[in-house]
Amino acid sequence: MRPKWFLVVAVLAAAAACGGGMSSTAQVTIRDFSFSPSTMPIKAGTTVTWTNNGPMSHTTVSDNGVWTSATLAPPSGGGGYGGGTAGQTFQFTFSTPGTYPYHCSIHPPAQYPDFVGTITVTP
Ligand SMILES: [Cu+2]
Prior knowledge:
Elements: H1 4-18, E1 24-31, E2 34-36, E3 39-43, E4 46-52, E5 61-62, E6 89-94, E7 98-103, E8 116-122
Parallel strand pairs: 1-4, 3-8
Antiparallel strand pairs: 1-2, 4-6, 5-7, 7-8
The structure holds copper (II) ion.
Copper (II) ion (CU) binds near residues 58, 104, 106 and 107.
């Protein structure tokens, strides 16, 4: 049987990892034409990074005006020869609990109904 101190260490490590007001991060990948994951629950204080990995330029824009990214260029060049650039990113930190739907302003939901996402922020 495992000694009890092992359990204590595990609980303390878990508390240190997610408690105490430490910030955390989450990732959304933009493709042609989807946000992945399209729905994402996070805790308040989490910084979300959107990364464009599709072949076209895209944006991430809050339906309610909470955030508006610049145009995010796709990754380019290199391939098997190396070099090139990574796809551009946009970051936003969610402080207030709520539901935050968003879309790409270049490819709006009227033409791309599945190209939408939602961030749900809990306290
Ligand atoms: Cu787009």
